[in-house]
Structure formats: C-alpha cells, structure tokens
Amino acid sequence: MAKTVAGETLRQNYELQQKFNEFQRQINQNNGYPFDFEKLITHLQNGVEGKFDVNSSKLEKVTPIVDDCFELIFESAHITIPDMETATRYAKEKWSKEVGSVTPSMSFTTGDKKKIKVFRFKQQLSSQKCVDFIKSQNAILPNVYGLAIAEMSVGSQLPKDKYMLGFDNRDSLSVSSGGSHGVPRLYLYSDGSVCRDRDSWGGGWGVVCCLVLFCD
Questions:
Q1: 3-state secondary structure (DSSP) of residue 21
Q2: SS3 readout for 82-151
Q3: CB–CB of 75/119 below 8 Å?
Q4: Tens digit of each residue's pLDDT (9 = 90 or more) over 40-77
Q5: pLDDT tens, position by position, 144-179
C-alpha cells in the first residue's frame, strides 16, 4: 500500500509541476500572460481550497475569434471606465493638445463596465479594414481616449513592443498641419519606456501593430 501511495504522489507532483511550468512559460512571454491573470489566480486559489465547483455555471465562456487578419492576444476582466475629464486631460498631456482635443465618433461613459481586448495584425492592413473589424465586434472605436483609458487601467498588462492603435472614423481623427488624419498610437517598450504619437491614416499597418477594442 505504501508503495502505491508513494507512486501516486509522485505522479500527482509530476502532473502538477507540468501545469505550473506551462503557466510560468506563458507569464514569461514577451507579451505576458495571454489570458486573464486575475481569473487564473482566483481559480488557483479555489483549487487550493478545494472549491472546484464555485460559480461554475457563471463562468464566462470566451468564444475564440477566428479571422485571417487579426488574432486576440489580450483580454482584460471588466474594467470601470474612469472619470472622462481625467482621461481627456491625460490624453492631451501624454499625446498632444491637438490629438487629445478631437471629438470622437463614439464616446465613453464614466462608470460603464467594459473589457479591453487587443488584437495583433497577421498581415499588413488598411485603416478602413481596421475600423470595419472593430465595428464588426460591436466595440467602441477608441480614438486617443481609449488608448488613455487602456494605459490608465491595465497598462502593466498590455502587450509590450507593439504599436497599439486607437482607430476611429477618419474624419474623427486629428489633422496634421499637412492635412493628413493621424491615428493615435501607444507603444510600451519592454524596458519600461513609452512612446505616444500618431501616424497617418493613409499608410499601411504591419504585423508590429495591434488594435485596441472596448467591448461589453
């Protein structure tokens, strides 16, 4: 009997360690843990306490989005939209007064609950293709204010070394002195530095770029 118990203990330890090794691998990726880290911690704690059926009927089911152009690489838990006056000031200070003073085609409401999703590009895409995809997901077109909210709310969890784009309809974006509409961008470097700028609507967007969406 003792040998059987010992053998089972070894098997359980091995299987558990394999799972933890996989968690560690995912967390150490360049873009961090690709799923909801807070939910992972909650599930692990429930396992420690033997609560395997807690709210099992209420767990959110994430339906994978299959698309030739976009891949979901980050999804937050529901966040509370912060005070929009604060978010607007943040956008003006961190990007520029010009970029942060536009009138977006869609607006955020303080106190609303939203999930932030980030999709990486699988190929070079046009601006209109990006806007059409956001609309197809019934998501808010973020403009610069969405980037500001994302950075303020889940900045430490967002993908690193990617251009995250705050798309809107072309005429709702800021206009440069040369007359071109600019898409606001947020780039979080692995070393902790940050770049906030804009790039022309008319250019193509490569695989180093991502879309930021706000969804119910």
A1: helix
A2: CCHHHHHHHHHHHCCCCHHHCCCCCCCCCCCEEEEEEEEECCCECHHHHHHHHHHCCCECCHHHHHHHHH
A3: no
A4: 777 777 677 666 665 543 444 444 455 789 999 999 99
A5: 999 999 999 999 999 999 999 999 999 999 998 888
Cα distances (angstroms) measured from residue 150 to each of 3, 80, 125, 145? 54, 11, 23, 9
CA distance 63 to 42: 21
Quote the CA–CA distance of 162 and 208 in Å, as a whole number: 5
Q: Residue 28 corresponds to which tokens in the numbers above?
A: 């150490």
Cα distance between residue 8 and residue 14, in whole Å = 10
Q: Which tokens hold the place of 41?
A: 């911690």
Q: What is the DSSP string of 24-83?
A: HHHHTSTT--SS-HHHHHHHHHHHHTT-TTTTGGGPPPPPP---SSEEEEEEPPPEE---
- Phi-psi bin for 26: left (phi > 0), alpha (psi -120 to 50), beta? alpha
pTM: 0.69
Amino acid letter for position 29: Q
